[in-house]
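Worked Example 4.2. Consider the chain below.
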Amino acid sequence: MSDPRPIGLFDSGIGGLTVLREVQARLPAESTIYIGDSARHPYGTRSDAEVRRFSEELSDELVERGVKAMIVACNTATAVALEHLRERHPAIPIIGVIRPGAAAAALATRTGRVGVLATVATVRSRAYFAAIKDENPGTRVIERAASELVPLIESGLTSAREISDAIHAAVGPFLVGDPGARIDTLLLGCTHFPLIRGAIVEALGAPIAVVDSAVATASFLQEVIAVNGLETPGSSRGTAADAGHRGHTAPTSEPVAPVHQIFTTGDPVAVDALAVRLFGESAPRTRQITLGSNRR
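Applying the procedure from the previous section yields the following structure tokens:
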């Protein structure tokens, strides 16, 4: 069995492109549709009701476009709306970024002290706290909100003094106190933050492992696609652990060239600039889209 339909991803803006990059690297034969809601970012300072409503509109749009699986490539939306979306679209596997990221952080820590840098809404939900504790109940989890970084990243100020100062202010509290009692792992609990990973590492100035959920989420998606028999025709992949043998035979259909689409509710030019940086000149041009009550 095989399924040529695309994989859908959505985020509050451009940050989820980091997840899209990992999905395309791990599943190169699969088509993808990405929607970023830059017109209404950031989600991290909004109410839970707003985040759920926006997430409904984004997921509904992807379902209408015929996706076979979906990644909520936004930590805030994952924390607030994931279970709601699974109830709304029960026929489609929907994956969030929190559980895979939490598992990666729990495995990375050597001292059992993990910091989480996220948005206000994600910290308020305590979703990362609970997920990391589920992986290892003995882990000490320290959460810090840094929603102010998101609009700076969206505006392209990834190398400006303003965002450098904001990063130092955000990570500073993780560095105070007895050095022997500090975190040894920092989980980037917002998909925008990997875009400034280098600056975060520099600001930490200490041997602290920095983990983001993109790679772990893409790996989990690969397993979900294989287990559910949703690989695209001609894919040579089986499961993540057993790529195409020992009972996990690849589809026999002729391969279909993947098609990638990127949409935004905001400025396509701004999204294109990042997409070219992440995917090269072959990145598809971003198209603007209108959602919800404003949809034309």
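The chain is about 40% helix and 15% strand. The CA atoms of residues 12 and 43 lie 6 Å apart. Compare this with Example 4.1 before moving on.
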